[in-house]
Amino acid sequence: MTAPRRIVVMGVTACGKTSLAQALAGRLGLPFLEADRLHPPENIAAMSRGVPLDDAMRAPWLDAVATKMRQLDQDRGGVVVACSALKRRYRDRLRADGPVFFLHLAIGIAEVRRRLALREGHFMNPVLADSQFAALEPLGPQEAGGTLDATMAPEALRAAALARLG
């Protein structure tokens, strides 16, 4: 089996999306895309103030992520993305141009709160953790992807992700 060309590591804040996506991109020889860097300034300002993003605020951001994914896939033969992709309709937007394999990093709220307390230099206000869990829709049976335990040791998590990718 050939590994998917467009991979999104998804989940709530502080679940480890960026670390895993960067590791996978390096291992697979694909470019890495940090979706948070594509948020417009007004979204970052809202999240910094502890205001959850609504669907209307997320729409242009998701479109920008999908566009950049398409460009990297065409130019470099694939991409690994770190993106929350919390709802099915958000994931539908990301796969509008073609298949995407989602790796959902599952984690509990207590562990997220612990990680957020240790995090420095990120715009995500820790008060938003609850809203992220409220919005989260796990992968459905028709969605290409798999769920992984985000509390695994980094090496074990990478190995499990690579096994899921084939």
Automatic annotation (TrEMBL):
Gene Ontology, cellular component aspect:
cytoplasm
Pathway in which this enzyme or protein is active = Carbohydrate acid metabolism
What GO molecular function annotation could you give as one example from this UniProt entry? Answer: ATP binding
Using the record, list the residue span of the signal peptide; answer none if the entry has no such feature: none
**Superkingdom field:** Bacteria
Q: Name one GO biological process term.
A: carbohydrate metabolic process
Presence of keyword Nucleotide-binding: yes
Per its record, how is this protein called by name?
A: Gluconokinase
Task: List the source organism.
Answer: Pseudooceanicola albus
